[in-house]
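hey
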């Protein structure tokens, strides 16, 4: 297959939507008004949407909504953890759907966005026409442990040492809890130091090849603080999901077609989870490609654009 390029897409509308508890979400609409409705769910949680995300959808055929989740990107208040849970975000998606004036739409989510997409689709299956998922994460304890207790550290020992060396021996027994205490400390210096270490760990494991520019962007103050605070908040609360909930309730997806794109060498969200999901979701097609975790690695990018093109037809 020849390499695919991102579509060139500009927003035709944007704004802020108040969703309660003091939160206002930044949103934008891209593509062709009246085209196939779709919503893009960014990863993290806490990273925010990006210009590149728009380019996964053919603007001549899609009417795409992107938004920054609570506390992330251009949404306000920045990095705020109050009333910021998985189920708050699920209902935000419904608010945005009604605000957009559409009855149902394709839902696209990568990494944490795949978690949120599954939670939304299982809560509101009648509102979802198709699902496109990448780098699937369902929040099971084994998945959390892989990233934050033992698993990915075997592949990236030097990055893991950098991640845990600021923690006390007691904190290292539960790194997420240790970091959460620091990321919610009153001292802003402590917060920022922890945020940069947390975000650098993630930047080091999401690509097959080390990327100094990616690490630099992840450790920029504003981005790092939102990503680390919100991610740690979600991880210590087990994403407000019971163990195995998203797989156990996958029967609610029985009328929804899906394409799941997974990097074979994804060190952040290994393929086992995507495989397990597709065993309990018969209408999903699993495509495992030779890549890591990032959406812009060419094999993953090819598969994702091909998926959105396929569903546009």
């Amino acid at each position: 297959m020849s390499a695919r390029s991102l579509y060139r897409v500009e927003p035709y509308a944007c704004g802020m939507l108040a969703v309660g508890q003091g939160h206002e979400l930044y949103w934008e609409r891209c593509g062709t008004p009246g085209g196939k409705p779709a919503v893009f769910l960014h990863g993290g949680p806490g990273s925010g949407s990006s210009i590149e995300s728009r380019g996964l959808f053919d603007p001549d055929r899609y009417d795409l909504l992107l938004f920054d989740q609570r506390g992330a990107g251009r949404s306000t208040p920045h990095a705020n953890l109050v009333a910021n849970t998985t189920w708050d975000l699920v209902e935000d998606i419904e608010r945005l759907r009604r605000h957009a004036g559409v009855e149902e739409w394709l839902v696209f989510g990568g990494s944490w966005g795949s978690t949120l997409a599954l939670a939304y689709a299982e809560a509101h299956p009648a509102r979802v026409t198709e699902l496109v998922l990448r780098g699937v994460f369902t929040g099971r304890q084994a998945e959390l442990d892989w990233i934050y207790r033992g698993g990915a550290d075997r592949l990236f020992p030097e990055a893991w040492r950098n991640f845990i060396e600021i923690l006390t021996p007691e904190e290292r027994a539960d790194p997420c809890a240790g970091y959460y205490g620091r990321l919610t400390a009153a001292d802003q210096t402590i917060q920022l130091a922890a945020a940069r270490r947390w975000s650098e760990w993630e930047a080091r494991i999401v690509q097959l090849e080390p990327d100094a520019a990616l690490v630099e962007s992840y450790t920029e103050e504003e981005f790092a603080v939102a990503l680390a605070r919100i991610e740690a908040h979600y991880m210590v609360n087990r994403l407000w999901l019971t163990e195995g909930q998203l797989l156990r309730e996958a029967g609610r997806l029985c009328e929804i077609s899906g394409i799941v794109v997974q990097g074979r060498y994804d060190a952040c969200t290994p393929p086992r989870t995507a495989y397990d999901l597709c065993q309990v979701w018969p209408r999903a097609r699993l495509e495992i490609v030779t890549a890591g975790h990032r959406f812009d690695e060419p094999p993953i990018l090819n598969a994702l654009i091909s998926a959105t093109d396929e569903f546009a037809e």
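The chain has two domains: 11-139+242-312, 142-239. The mean pLDDT is 97.
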